[in-house]
Amino acid sequence: MNALVKLKTVGLCSVTALVLACGEDATNVVTENGATGPSRVVEEASPSPPAEPPPAAQSRPLIIVTERESPEISLNYLHILPDWPSDGVLDYDAALELGEFVDVQAVGGALYAYRPSNFEVERLLVDADLNVTSSGRLSFANYGVDAYSETIWVSPERAFLVDELSGQMVLWNPSRMEIIGATSIDPALLERDGMPAVLQRGMCVGERCVTAINWRDWSTDRYHSAAALAIFDGASDEPELTVVEDPRCAPSSSLAPFRDEAGNLYVIGDGGLGFDRLASPNKTALPQCVLRLPAGATEFDPDFFVDLNAVTGSPGFYTAHPMADRRLLVNTWSPAVDVATVADPVDPGWYWSYPPYFEYAIVDLEGAASIPVPDLPRAAVQFSTTLRVDDENYVQLYQEDGSTSLYRVDTTGAVTRVLDSGRGTDVQYLGRL
């Protein structure tokens, strides 16, 4: 697959399709080069053995979805645990095999397993003994949606399957496993200056729903220079998307919005995961930054602007994920490495495959300050992913043999290894039932 081809998923994460983040609070999922697994060395992030994280804030069962790769097939496994394993190892004899390329989300006390191969979602219930039973299936095949459309969850009774390729939003009831109806997306919104719109994984604050939107043509490296959100009313059976955009930031290309405790929404102008700033033939001079959409507002706050490049001292970053205490965990290009000494002036695809020059930092959105995370080593873009559960961030690092280790990173930058997976195995999703 071409390095600049983007595959969207409904939270689908795969070792074979490089991911950015999956989990209870996952921001979105984007694949960039379809690599079949790590091919470069990543140092151990910590010499200490796996340690049990502090007790979770919630007593609900922990949901972990993993993927095991082989030359023939990649299979997903569902692990349902009282909490994190104290020895840092998952028991596959107790896991439920889900099949190939299955996306799982925990919503409203149930699990929803989506299989893009047949456009079908299955509702799974878990009893007090952590046994799993199926409670219904629902197919979207008759609606002509793309296999990797994404679901935006309003509540356990309302969700929208959003698909810009077919130009529609399919409303369904997850609790009753029924489709309510489909609404067309305004064609004028789906294209701008000859570039198709891409709606990234969204979220809802109450019934106010948003999804990051951008217009981009990876084949020509053209893009619309603005950070933008598409907003809609999750209570409506026929919602209309309204676009709010701001030219202060690089395009909100690949990372989803997030919220704070006051209900304010934030968009990250990531500039194609840093590609627009560091490698694109059409580089942007706009910063990768964070903007705020106040609760109930229809315009971005003109007084809130966090330039992540300036704060971290880095020319670009790959990913940024919300943390507790109004912070961001940012995977930045190392400020100590001159991009010009690494870049290939002929092939911009160098960005997706070069040796490890990305490192982690934590940014305080209020104080506009940054602290390093020294116990996580540098990695290339395909060698780390971020997952979230219990309002905590977990960084997964890939080793040379394809095995992975999962590290909890707290808001002070402290790192604790919590899980190790064997060769060709990684964690795809974290959640609580």
Account of the protein in words:
With 433 residues, the chain is mainly β. It has one domain: YVTN repeat-like/Quinoprotein amine dehydrogenase (Methylamine Dehydrogenase, Chain H). The chain is 2% helix and 42% strand. Strands 14, 15, 16, 17, 18, 19 and 20 form a seven-stranded antiparallel sheet that branches. Strands 5-4-3-33 form a four-stranded antiparallel sheet, with no helix packed on it. A hairpin with a 4-residue loop joins strand 3 (62-69) and strand 4 (74-81). The longest helix is centred in the C-terminal third of the chain and has 5 residues, at 308-312. Mean pLDDT is 86; it is low at 1-22 and 25-57.
End-to-end CA span: 35 Å
Assembly context of the chains: single chain
Topology-level CATH name: Methylamine Dehydrogenase, Chain H
Identify the CATH architecture. 7 Propeller
Strands, count: 33
State the shape: globular
- Percentage beta strand: 35-45%
Helix/strand structural class: mainly beta
Helix content: under 10%
Name the CATH superfamily classification: YVTN repeat-like/Quinoprotein amine dehydrogenase
Low-pLDDT residue intervals, each spanning 5 or more residues? 1-22, 25-57
- Class, according to the CATH hierarchy? Mainly Beta
DSSP summary: helix tally: 2
Rg, alpha carbons: 20 Å
Total number of distinct structural domains: 1
Largest sheet data? 7 strands, antiparallel
Average pLDDT, all residues: 86
